[in-house]
Amino acid sequence: INDELTWCENTILLYFAALSTMTYKEFQQKVTLELASIYDNERGTLSHPKKGENFSKAVKMYERAIILGSGVSAHNLALMYERKMLPKDMQKIIEFYERAAELGNTQSYFSLATIYYRNKEYINLERAALNYSIYCNRMHRQMRESDLIKNRNFIEAAITLEHLLNNDIVWELQYNYWKLFEQKDIENAEILFLIS
Length: 196
Known about the structure:
It is built from eleven helices and no strands.
């Protein structure tokens, strides 16, 4: 039981945890993310945001869900900073996208790559190439070929990655990454990304 939640929220957590095949922590993460999403959806639109009680609850619930291991929550919080729902802070945006990627959120690799490729203050072609690579590889594993060619982010990532691979700055790093990936050493390939 979580003291920060209302009696009703705790009751819902316990009830569904009992019915669920998930662990209590997994279920708590899922419910916390769902509650954050509900509060987040009540925030209004980008042009007319509402920053009331539910907006603050959404931020708190996303933060709680991140602690519980939710990559989607970290990604959503980064989006809130990026879209100026919270004061824009590039360090926090990158921090939350990196945390989301660590927690398995594939879309965050694309977002990080885009920052490193397009944002003048944060240009880092090696990191852009590696994030685009990881994004493309994960999307390729998650989606059917016919669906990939319809995915705008995948196409953008693949085209940008091809452009970056023609750049001598990232060629050797990318070669080493693909070599590990082809050997099905995905864990070490992604470690190469993290230490670069």
